Fold each of these.
Amino acid sequence: MAQPAKAQDRVNDFVIKLANVNGTGSASANTLLMKSIFRMGIPVMGKNYFPSNIQGLPTWYEIRVTRDGYVARSGRVDLMVAMNAETYAKDVREVSAGGYLIYDSTWPRSTVLKREDITILGVPLAKICNENFVGVRNRILMKNIMYAGVLAALLEIDLDVFRQLLAESFGKKQALVDANMKAVQLGYDHAKAHLPCPLPLRVERMDKTAGHIMIDGNTAAGLGAVYAGATVGPWYPITPSTSLMDAFKSFCARLRVDPETGKNNYAVIQAEDELSAIGMVLGANWNGARAFTATSGPGISLMSEFIGLAYYAEVPAVIFDVQRVGPSTGMPTRTQQCDILLCAYASHGDTKHVLLFPSNPEECFYMAIQAFDLAERLQTPVFVMSDLDIGMNDWMCRELQWDDGYRPDRGKVLTKEEIEALPKFHRYLDKDDDGIPYRTLPGVSPKGAYFTRGSGHNQYGGYTEDSTEYQVVLDRLARKFKRARLLVPPPVIEATGTSTIGLVAVGSSRGAVNEARDILAKRGIAIDYMRIKAFPFTKEVESFMAEHEKIFVVEQNRDAQLRSLLTLETDVPKSKLHSILHYDGLPMTSKGIVDAVLAELGDAKRAALA
Amino acid sequence: MSFINKPKVRHPDLPKNELGLTRRDYEGAMSTLCAGCGHDSITASIIEALWGLSLRPEQLVKLSGIGCSSKTTAYFASGSHGFNGVHGRMPSVATGANAANKGLYYIGVSGDGDSLSIGFGQFAHSIRRNVNMLYLCENNGVYGLTKGQFSASADIGTKSKKGEENLQAPVDPCLAALSLGGTFIARSFSGDKEQLVPLIQAGLMHKGFAMIDIISPCVTFNDHVGSTKSYTFTREHYHEAVHADYVPPRQEIKASYGEGETLPVQMHDGSHIVLRKLDKDYDPTHRGKAFEYLRTKLRQGEHVTGLIFVSSSGPDMHDMAGTTDVPLNQVPYEKLHPGSEGLAKILKRYA
């Protein structure tokens, strides 16, 4: 059982959880809180657990103040703000021993709000709101902003930072800034007068957030698509990917309108379904534009037929899969890494696809650009395997950088002159012996014309049902996929040089893994870490696994999909790979990994002694 | 199918168009369809229409789905890029291609199975978007490649080759397109080249989604007595309401059309469609009346053909999206992002 930490240990190191009702404006209050802590120079993590619903259901927000800069959940809750009577019982249970709970004491305290080992603080938020604000909606919204004021007093958050942030978000609407600040002040003053301010868990200014931003992965990926030069964005709305195309569209509305003509240098097309969205992506890429779509698991299922066509007919495509909980509709607003196998082998027949695994919003930006370069270089679909946790939560990450010398890699596209200099153009001929053929674009030259088809074709681009001709193309596609191993980013390896234990993970597990390794190192267990960034697996992946005796594979799904892919696509013996699986729909905690490693190593030690 | 390859030798006196190209320059690979297939006649009309328009082959993009009709994009315009996609999904590929490059001409060839069953959604939504393309529905009421099942356009009471009677109501692509806001809706018959060629030309030049439903009998599976899509039945129940002639820009409209019976409709590029009304009561510029007329004739067992409805003023997909005149695939990269300086500005919000 967790022991209450000492007070001095908890400055800039604690977890606040806010239990709200969705659709009540709590998101603004929670973002305000998190962002103000970030602005005070203190590293912070925020996670939103929301329902698949518009208004009225429970929603939680978790803010971890983390002076050591950990970006994952710790597994603790030190301060609960219980604003939803419906979930009081669950919320009060979740507070770690020695923690605090704040609730709205306008109404008689519920009998469920009882626990001897935590401190319960009441603030009559609704009452104060009703006395100071007019209108039902306004009162609901202001009640949430008011608890931000209460927390500012309890945790010593700088009110000037609040004011500055409100001014930034409301812009010229001074009346809104004033109303919000009034609510903040009311909460602040009440807390100062009636509560034990400050609490032992509180914040103190640091300087650890300079050069950093707070951004969600979907926004970063949308911005990446802008910088990659994407011009066509066909999509079908689906949680949790919707905000990616929304971000692309809103960046384009600001950055892509021709100043001279007022016309748009982009087209975002809302398709009738995912089948159509991916068809448009193929049509546009085939015709020489950079086009992409954003979707989630159910969308990938629908797109699979076209993805196979893109693989076989060698049409570039970029697909952002912001993974959510499956199977089927699953839990649309919860996170998992459950599409790894689906995407690696999407579509019928022999198909394999390039996957990139961003671990945070920063990598969403860079990998968006990389994805377009790879898709055009390899003439094949490329998946960016984000997830809800990365895509929809604000993460603290390093400021994004841009190299003005960057030019898109458009791959092997023949110019008019090049086409006309050829005796004859053959679409699928492996002229450079690298598995990658040359392509031509419509509208350039009649000599470059060819027929793109998903039916059997030979290396010259003609229709075929001849066994040998068919196999020549299929074998070349396999060589092309091998070639991709040299082009995709290698893994990031953090090794001690002496440890025989390895840990492999992808994507958003990174934060939890980093912290778990630190915790384990303090206990004398050193573990080497390989963060895989892409599929097909590069040679470094093979050697890391060869060099370690026991390898933990950490992933967020039930069926150990990454482990399966490793055993299918490398020479690693299955027995070496020990799974640590997390699939409850919430982002991973470091504690989950530590416990699993200790349990396994403990068993192993016992087995060795027996 | 024919097994004789086309001769490569060309007669020196073949007539040439404005570009100096002969009809042979708009041909494609040898057809592999059954001898006498209606689709091959349509292919011949497409070749004639393209030659007549003096279109440079590389200006044209050919797209199709799956089925006998979809095979035909290989049989014309070998100098044009072709994309044979997946079943029923040609419209989305065409939409994406058109989004990327508005400067080319797009011709989609589909069939009744491809358009009205598996691809009905994409068919409908590309009409709603008014994608600037010519969409041909080569309609034979039957699935040929899978040996004779009814398609969604099979009429009630029509009989399959095996004698089975269709009891389900048909989807009429023209009525569907009318109700979905289609801006160019025509019906024709594979055997009527005189009507079809100018319709194809007008449809290609129409700015927006031009749909021609072409009754195209299947000689192998749907040309028997009892079928309502046979050559004989079609000829007997054919009612041309409006004949459309395509007149290119700069060419004078000939006065040979009787005053009062003809209606010139100006297209966006300065060309004209001259509509010759064969039925006095018909108004091809009035959506509601066109709908009613079609329904009435259908009840009488007649297929109205010709240019059923045309509206040349509506915005196409690019107009609605407000895209630049330069095709999106040709906008220089420098114009697509604001560089490192711009990035620093954007990121201020997130600091």
Amino acid sequence: MSALDILIILLRVAFGAFVPLSFVAVLVWMERRGAAFFQDRAGPNRCNVYGIRAGGLIQNLADGIKLIFKEDIVPGHIQHKLYFILAPMLVFITALLCFAVIPFADVLVLGDREYVMQAVPMDVGILWFLAVVGFGVYGIILAGWSSHNKYGVLGGLRAAAQVISYEIPMGLSLVSLLAVYGTVDLSAIAQYQGQLLFGFIPAWGFVLQPLGVIIFIVAAFAETNRTPFDLAEGESEIVAGYHVEYSSMKFALFFMGEYVAMFVSSALIVTLYFGSYQIPWLSTETLVAHARPVVILLMIGLPVIAYFFAGWIKKNNRTHYYRADDPRSRETAIYVSLLWSLVVVLEVILLIYLIFAAGGAADRILVLLLQIGSFLIKTFLMCFVYVWVRWTLPRFRYDQLQKIGWEKMLPLALLNIFITGAIIVSFS
Amino acid sequence: MSAELVLSGAVFIGLALAIPTIMVLTAVFGPRSGGEAKNAPYESGITQVVGMADQKFSVKFYLLAILFLIFDIEAVFMYPWAVSLRELGVFGFIEMVVFILLLLTGLIYILKKGVLNWR
Amino acid sequence: MTDTVSEKLRALFPDIEPQKVLDATVIDVEPERLMVVMERLKTYPDLDFSLLLDITAVDYLTYPGQQGGRFRVVYTLRNWKRNWLLQVRTPVADPELGLPTVSGLWGAADWAEREVYDQYGIRFQGHPDLRRILNHWQFEGHPLRKDYDIYKGQVCYEPDRLEKEIRARLAAKGIDQSTMSDINTEMMFLNLGPSHPATHGAIRIFTALDGETIMANVNEIGYLHRGFEKTAENRTYNQIIPLTDRLNYCSALMNNIAYVKAVESWLGIEITDRAMFMRVILGEFFRVQDHLVCLAANLVDMGGLTNYWYLYNEKEASYDFISRLTGARLTSSFTRIGGMYRDFYEGWEADLERQLQAIEKGVNDSLKLVLQNRIVHDRTQGTCVLSPEKALSYGYTGPNLRSTGIAFDLRKDNPYYHYDSFDFDIPIGSRGDIYDRIMVRFEEIFESIKIIRQAVKRIPAGPVFVDDHRVALPPKEQVYHKIEGLANHFKLIFEGVKTPAGEWYDSYEAANGELGFHFVSDGSGTPYKLKVRPPCFYAMSGFHEMIEGEMIADAIINLGSINIIGGELDR
């Protein structure tokens, strides 16, 4: 292995491990601001560091620090302390491990070497995901059971019954998808979606599997224990369910595990059904071939976007008081100047690229970065759908949830397999 | 297995283990204050509870688990079929239709038996 | 109307002489005949007193000039179809022997008799589960007896296990736990509350669960009991007004109105027209607030937090408006015996209209999320059904009763404050499930807004306080310069409003149902006895009937849907 190999392996792993983590902060922020947006209120906007509030992001920092320095209680009535401590870790680890197989850009070709852009370049893909996500429920059951608390036990049982019930429709909706793609390797699935259907429709999963995508997304909501399937927590019924006895950072691990799981399942939905990292109508080869016009477009586009973004910041962060050296105006000025200096730096980099480095490996790295951007934006939007649904729908009751899973989704998934199979067989 | 896979796998799993472990270890930063109430299970503030949490659960939960086992194993059979559907052709498809119908019959039987009727 | 009830009673019981006190007809019955009379009152189709409103007792230990026995139990009954109100009074010779129970006739008597036993120590023979209800199980003595010292507090050191009670309930339902041990499972006994996010206030809902299904349920209340009735016996009539604020704190002003209305009707005071309209406007506005809070909390129990904010944002803005109108947000104590504390500020009509429009917008926004929502429908339709017979038996009133299809509303059936001249409808449900209860409240919001708009158009100018020296403080001019004024002021403040000796019951349609006050006056400025008839108490007494056989999640939203307010429940 060359030094380049090791560097790329480390970069990939770092991406796979730390992007979901940093997205936790973004998602918590999005959840809070999103909730406030849907509910006609302001959301967190007070926490600041020297007047910088970053639109409420500092609140997350404050919460994190608070949770670290809170008393960590392991109640005395708990007999299996090891399991009690292991449970939140398990939830977090499984959520993170799922991201290992998700491709975030097309295969990077550097010289004669090809690098698959997954944290761990496995070709088992979706099978790894199914295996690990099924393991995640152990964390919840273990938490509920080792808490030695009736609410916890009920929450754990609810979560277990729910996750196993929805794993079947999820798995079956994947069966028909795999029949379409003919592979379980997520990289290959992502590449498949770079094609065009009939020459003009991007061959994304949701076009090929309109019923499957609905079943999969609903099942994914259930698997991540998000509203309307958040019965395992059901704060108004069984208080907090499985994590009722947890405090401090152990509680935070459940909390973060939930958001990592939400990020990962969004990423998987995007990978399977919404074209993964593909930019519509612009396949990897097209982008590499036309790197120069793309860069010029970017150089024109960046200042325009920055201009509107700066205008938006100024509009939403305007001060309501007339005073000298208002912290809000100062904050706005800092944001806007930071934004413009970022634009300048990017423009300089792009200019250097245009003059000195165009062509060859640099083009491929540029396309790689663009595709990572595309992947993250899509995933972010999918996460927004999660937030959107959470603040729109109330919660199911336990037996209704089971009935929907077994009576509606399972037959629908089987029907979907039948239709898909019939079409594939009759066309091939 | 290539060296690339082993290395990235080891590093990734190592990171995935290390991050939560470090987070759990931050417990040492917190203050410590004992107390009787903190060592009792929470049940809406009632300390004189009837029955403990480690009792036997309702059998209804087990029924679901058994149901899951049956259907999940059957779903596992479908993955290789799905990936190689194009090679298997019409015969493979008809075989799977028969299999799905068998599955459905079982499902309908279970639903009619009222396994999911909780109320 | 009351003539006919007297005639009917005379026809049935020739030796009983009915008296008329305000709206109510009062009969005195000997303890030996109590069961016969009560049974006939309930079952005789011409009388049909299907609603047992309240049971209370009076301790005549220190009552001036009282002859005869120390205790007397008073049953308040109502025939909702013909609006007959009847009070049956029975002397109790020996509290240890007490009276026969009527809990076999009315479900409401179960808790009502427990309360009488708890507060007065009067036993009821044959009662299935006669134990304390408002005071804790380690309490000694009976606080509403006149010889109980008001300053004697008692602390509860450990909660009641309630195991015996829930096992009795299981046995009563015919659930045999040996069948469960056959398949090697056990029933889970789970406490929901007192310290639980969904018990609005502090109520203990103790359930026996098979999986998630509630097999049996026993409830414990009294966590917010603060001795309202005992405190009231030591205050002048006007001093009690701030205490009534704390009954149903979601619609505090309605309690004020109900209380002063009861005192005024005994004094025979006709308040000024402006004060009446002010009370209508405030009462209906607070009814809207109460329903907003109830619906918001109910939907948040269901997991729909966005609904909560759509409704609660408007409630918050309304409270700001109320603080401008009355001087306080929550507990305004705005009424006085004989009128209102003061007139509204200049230009309140425009602000009120703006607030009403905001409420309509918020409610419509929330309705958009609820009306077509399949999850809400599945959760609420056909769950926790309350049949009309059960509702009447357990003494449900207000929106909870109307959701079962019984159109009983005091504003229509026994109008006060010109309610008969307003154009409004009484929304009723058809099945008595949670959905009906939610929708009846949504509709009542719109009806109340209709009433407010009419009242704002019709409100006359004029004084807000009646010109009656028995209740009205003299103007400051007279207090400072005339000895009569000073004396009058002094007497009204120190001795309170003097009411003629007697006993009476008066009721008011509060947001939650019939809020009644039973007074005993000895002629002084302090009530000898004051008993509230809180609608919540009786709603909660039938709660177990609604949730048994349903699931935990249903029990939680059902608790929200019958709108239990701790302050009123526990007093």
